[in-house]
Design a protein that fits this description.
Elements: E1 19-23, H1 26-40, H2 42-47, E2 48-52, H3 56-63, E3 70-72, H4 74-79, H5 82-100
Parallel strand pairs: 1-2, 1-3
């Protein structure tokens, strides 16, 4: 599946309300959290959950039923296995649609 530009994490794309950013490693999670604090402050960082997903099971556990914006770290699309990336995109798109209907 192709990732749309608006599905890729960028600090300036984070909403003022809750959001989830998907990372592929603990190191990427730490980098993303630092970026958010540095560029948007601790308040936005506190409302943004950065999750590490390395396989389809983790995707199911962390993204099923979510109703808030979900963004993918650009490195996630490079590192994640195709099946994992496809499932994360499917779940993220569902969450993003549900969020938009609130």
């Amino acid at each position: 599946m192709k990732i749309a530009q608006n599905e890729i994490f960028a600090v300036d794309r984070l909403p003022e309300r809750d959001a989830i950013v998907v990372a592929y490693s603990a190191e990427a999670r730490a980098r993303i959290q630092r970026q958010i604090v540095d560029q948007r402050g601790s308040e936005v960082a506190g409302r943004t959950k950065v999750v590490v997903i390395r396989d389809r099971l983790a995707a199911e556990e962390k993204l099923t039923g979510i109703r808030k914006p979900v963004l993918l770290d650009e490195a996630f699309q490079i590192s994640a296995p195709t099946a994992t990336l496809d499932r994360v995109l499917e779940l993220a798109r569902g969450a993003n649609v549900a969020f938009g209907k609130r």
